[in-house]
Q: What sequence folds into this?
């Protein structure tokens, strides 16, 4: 029974080489391990599961019940959990909801590449899926699993079982092996999965068989996303002019017996444009204003001008404290046109060094990039960043505000 299941897994990995070289390359770095009921130290899974080291545990009965084509798909499913770093700790996220969101993302990729999966799985069609008859997730191929998690978080019944595999997560959440866990070395020890993915992608590209739906994940691995507040901080600090002053030496240097100049930072004039069009939800507007308060509190040498706009500029306010933000008049609710904002900045604030634009991104852009440096902060469900024609771009995730970036 066990040998039959093992042969099916080997055959699946070999079969993938001709049709799906990317998945084959990754799958060859997995270590299949049959679940032994007499082994009390290793994971016992009723179906299949993989850990962050690349150990792929399987129940022979489950493997033998699947067709050979389904085994191919499930092997690809398991390796993608490792490749996309789904097996790290979840911090405050619900485990079951996270499992469902991650399975939806992976299965969408697997099915887009014309592979088969067991009917018990969460199987999207045309990048959409309906769960429990009333929970509809759309544009799966455009969303990270964290965004799908937020769409499911308060709607998904917790008592039901979803999917066909086990997610074997590390205990401390750092994605690293624990030498004291008693599981022994696995195929993933010392493996650089980022490198493996890049090698696998290049290997498939040479054969003209790059996988569908994985371009953005390869890009994200090579150009990892910054937490947007860190990006904003670097943006502002980089733009603040400074000078050295020897008449007031640095107190730290004097304490060390060294005479060094102090750094004098000048004021920086920046703007915040708040999209008040009909596509921005009240919650989004509230959170954007909250972030504006955060900017005021964090940077005392910043002169902040807040502009509200939809298809035209409605209000302009100078902000120096939290009370000024609370007193801002919010008008809008119409269509979205970004051009009036940049025109207003050009005519009224030519010295402005940075414009932070809170928006969902769905609007009309200027034909030419403006002079003012722009940071686009795109709300959940907004436009894909690569479609914004100029400036720096970053996705916002207000609901993870109190969590560290993953």
A:
């Amino acid at each position: 029974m066990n040998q039959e299941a093992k042969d099916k897994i080997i055959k699946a990995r070999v079969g993938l080489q001709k049709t799906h070289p990317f998945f084959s390359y990754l799958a060859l770095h997995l270590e299949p391990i049959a679940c032994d009921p007499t082994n009390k130290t290793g994971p016992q899974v009723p179906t299949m599961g993989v850990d962050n080291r690349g150990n792929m545990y399987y129940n022979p009965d489950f493997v033998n019940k699947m067709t050979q084509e389904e085994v191919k798909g499930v092997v690809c499913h398991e390796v993608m959990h490792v490749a996309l770093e789904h097996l790290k700790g979840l911090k405050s996220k619900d485990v079951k909801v996270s499992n469902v969101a991650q399975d939806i993302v992976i299965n969408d990729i697997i099915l887009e590449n014309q592979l088969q999966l067991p009917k018990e799985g969460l199987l999207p069609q045309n990048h959409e899926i309906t769960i429990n008859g009333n929970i509809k997730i759309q544009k799966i191929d455009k969303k990270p699993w964290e965004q799908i998690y937020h769409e499911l978080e308060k709607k998904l019944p917790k008592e039901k079982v979803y999917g066909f595999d086990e997610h074997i997560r590390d205990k401390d959440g750092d994605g690293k092996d624990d030498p004291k866990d008693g599981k022994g070395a696995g195929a993933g020890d010392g493996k650089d999965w980022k490198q493996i993915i890049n090698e696998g992608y290049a290997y498939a590209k040479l054969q003209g068989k790059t996988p569908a739906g994985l371009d953005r994940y390869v890009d994200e691995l090579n150009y990892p996303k910054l937490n947007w507040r860190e990006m904003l901080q670097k943006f502002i600090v980089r733009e603040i002019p400074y000078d050295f002053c020897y008449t007031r030496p640095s107190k730290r240097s004097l304490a060390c017996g060294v005479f060094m100049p102090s750094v004098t930072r000048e004021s920086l004039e920046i703007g915040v444009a708040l999209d008040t069009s009909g596509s921005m939800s009240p919650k989004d507007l509230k959170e954007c204003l909250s972030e504006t308060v955060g900017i005021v509190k964090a940077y005392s040498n910043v002169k902040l001008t807040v502009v509200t706009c939809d298809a035209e500029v409605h209000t302009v306010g100078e902000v120096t404290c939290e009370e000024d933000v609370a007193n801002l008049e919010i008008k809008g609710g119409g269509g979205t046109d970004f051009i009036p904002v940049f025109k207003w900045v050009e005519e009224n604030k030519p010295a402005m060094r940075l414009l932070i634009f809170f928006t969902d991104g769905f609007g009309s852009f200027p034909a030419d990039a403006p002079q003012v440096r722009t940071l686009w902060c795109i709300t959940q469900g907004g436009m894909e960043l690569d479609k914004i024609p100029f400036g720096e771009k970053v996705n916002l995730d207000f609901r993870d505000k109190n969590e560290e970036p993953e």
In short: Residues 2-19 form the longest helix (18 residues). The chain has two domains: 2-222, 228-400. The two ends are 41 Å apart (CA to CA). Confidence is low (pLDDT under 50) at residues 172-189, 399-406.
